# Entry
Amino acid sequence: MLKKYLLGGLLLATATTAQAETVTARVVADDHYKIFIGDANGTSLTEVASSGSNLWSSQGMPVNFDISVGQYLYVAAWDSASYGPPHAWIGEFDIAGIRLYSNTTDWVGKNNGTIKDPSVSDAEALANSATAWSALLASMANGSSPYGTLIGGSPASFVWTDVFGGASASEGGYALFRTANAVVTPVPGALPLLLSGMGLMALRSRRRK
# Structure
């Protein structure tokens, strides 16, 4: 009997183990961006993509990376020191056939006014700071001036934490954006099915008695 319950517990643990999904991301930022993945608190971020030295007009090519159950997407965006405002970013993320877009519904943000081109540790420090994540206040449709239509006419929006212009709190640094929720969640139905299997094993044991 003990062995049967141990087996059921092992199956349950296996089913709820985090499974990775592949993300195909297309991002354009004025002027640069980095994409991170990690937990909600930002205590263990991993950089998975960046614009490198490319300015917004040369960005938007697809990049692929894996993300696990419970992880969040982060986008850091900033102006080059050689260019001024406006600033904005727009993105489309395909996660196992489900599309996530940049908008004011699915993302929250924070600002840093002193650092450009943030490292992983910089982004972790801002994500994990006492400053609360806030709703995004600046948004405009894909196709808006001065950028025009990007990412193949995606329904994503250009977004920023507060304003697109030079009055932004991020003007001397960068803005950090995070998905409001974890991107991948456990598969619905796996737990009830396994519990049914455990119940069946217990029923068989009782019948033998």
